[in-house]
Amino acid sequence: MNTSSNRLKNAVAAICPDIRDRVSKAVIPTDEKRLWWELSSCILSSQVPYPLSTAAANAINNDGILHDKCVSATKRAKRLEELLITPVEVDGKQRAYRFPVARARQLAAAHSVVMDSKCTLRELVKSFATATEARCWFVKHVPGIGPKQASMFLRNAGVSYDLAILDRHVLNYMTKLGMYSGDNYSISSLAQYRRHEVELKKHAEELDCQVGFLDWAIWIVMRVANRVPEVATV
Fold first, then answer.
1. Of 25, 31, 93, 148, which residue is the catalytic one?
2. What are the beta bridge partners of residue 95?
3. Name one GO biological process term (predicted).
4. Options 18, 167, 202, 215, the catalytic residue
5. Cα separations in angstroms, 55 against 59, 93, 96, 201
6. Minimal CA–CA distance to 130: which of 163, 85, 97?
7. Domain match, 7 and 51 both
């Protein structure tokens, strides 16, 4: 491992205890409205900056369309599309969401799947014996949800911190540390995702940090690393 990789690893290791401490003190809401906000954010975040996806999720949440069980799936999709077409404010600027039609259909279909399985998203999440089982179910049945989105949803909902969130920041970090050599920074196969998750879990154990916390630590470190040019050593 070269000097640059060691610096990244040490920086992530230094941040992990603070993240663990903050999470342990945080009160994570698990009410129905909050869970739908989390699931919406994860579906909307695919190929979209996370601040934009959360702003869009806020608009949907405030409208209440995902909480009205009397609306038909067709009308729900139409209303979701109207909301996603409308620009939202991100960092003081009006931004347009990239995939309003596709994501509206996915969110409407996700709502139908959840309602057909259980009466509420909260009851559905509680029905699984393990987080791994829950992730498999969401990937298999919920439109717009891949392994990364399912892992993020279950982590953010406070279900488990033992699932890896293999986004482009994490995979870039793994590449720099020699843990990942693929060209694909969006892993859709659950079997392939699990293989790389095993490698990251080994790394997390080495850093004495749960793998679910690593995403936050790596995100912070990689954002800084990508802004600061490499300083030549004499």
1. 148
2. 88
3. DNA repair
4. 167
5. 6, 11, 10, 31
6. 163
7. no
Q: What is the average pLDDT across 206-229?
A: 84
Report pLDDT for 224. 79
Indicate whether 35 pLDDT > 50.
yes
Position of tokens 């993240």? 19
Query: Which residue type sits at 165?
Result: I
- Our answer to whether residue 167 is catalytic in this structure is yes
Taking the model in full, what pTM does it have? Answer: 0.90
Same domain, 42 and 19: no
Please answer whether residues 147 and 166 qualify as being in contact, where contact means their C-beta atoms are separated by less than 8 angstroms: yes
Is the domain of 89 the same as that of 115? yes
| Domain count within the chain | 2
Three-class SS state of 88 = strand
Residue 29, pLDDT > 90, answer: no
Residue spans of alpha helices (H) in the chain: 3-25, 32-44, 50-63, 73-85, 100-117, 121-126, 131-141, 147-156, 168-176, 190-206, 211-227
Q: What is the pLDDT of residues 137-182, one digit of tens each?
A: 999 999 999 999 999 999 999 999 999 999 988 999 999 999 998 7
Distance from C-alpha of 10 to C-alpha of 221, rounded to nearest angstrom: 10
Q: How many Cβ atoms from other residues are within 10 Å of residue 156's Cβ? A: 18
Looking at residue 181, what is its pLDDT? Answer: 87
Q: How far is Cα 211 from Cα 217, in angstroms, rounded to an integer?
A: 10
pLDDT at 233 over 50: no
Helix axes 32-44, 100-117, angle to 10 degrees: 140
Q: Are 145 and 43 in contact, with CB atoms under 8 Å apart?
A: yes
Domain around 10? 3-25+164-226
